[in-house]
TrEMBL record:
It comes from Dipodomys ordii. InterPro entries: Choline_transptr-like. Keywords: Antiport, Cell membrane, Glycoprotein, Membrane, Mitochondrion, Mitochondrion outer membrane, Phosphoprotein, Transmembrane, Transmembrane helix, Transport. Interacts with COCH. This is Choline transporter-like protein. It is found in: Cell membrane; Mitochondrion outer membrane. One of its GO terms (cellular component) is plasma membrane.
Amino acid sequence: AITNLTKWYAAFGVSGSGWGQGWNLVGIRLPITPWDPQSQHLKFLNVPSSFLSTSNEAVYKIFDDASCPLVGKTCNPQNFPSLNESRLCPNGRCQFAFYGGESGYHRALLGLQIFNAFMFFWLANFVLALGQVTLAGAFASYYWALRKPDDMPAFPLFSAFGRALRYHTGSLAFGALILAIVQIIRVLLEYLDQRLK
C-alpha cells in the first residue's frame, strides 16, 4: 500500500521525504483546504464593501450660465421650481452633481473603504499563513518522529492546526499585519500612479 501511495504522489509531482508521506494523507488535501476559509473571508468582507460602495446619496447643485450668487449650492430637484432660489436665478437649473453626501459619514467614507481593504489584506494573509504553518507542522511531525508510524499523532494535520493556533497565532497575526501594511501602501501608490498618468 505504501508503494502505491508513493507512486500516486510521484504521479502528481509531490516529492519530499519518500514513502513517509503516505502516513500523512490529509496533507495532500491541505493546499485546497484554505480556499474555503478564504472564500468565506471574501464573502464576509464583500458585505461591508458593497454597503460602503452603495451608501452614497445623489447630490444636486444649482447650475447657471449667468452670474448667479447661488451657483454651487445644494438643491432639491422636486421642489426647486417653487423655491426662492429659482426666482433669484431665473436661468438656474438644479442638476445632479455627484454621488456622495455632506455628512460626517460621507466624508469618512473613503477612509472606511481603505480600512476595509486593509482588513481584507490582513485576514487573507493570516489565513494563508495559518495554512502554511499547519502544513509545515503536519510534515514536521513525520520528519521528527523516531519510529515513523508509531510516534506520529493519529491526526497530524489537526494536531498541527491546534499547535499553530495555540502557539503561533500572535506571530502569524503580526506577520500578516506587516504584509497588509505593505500591500495597502502598494495599492495606494498604484492608485495614485493611475490617477496621475
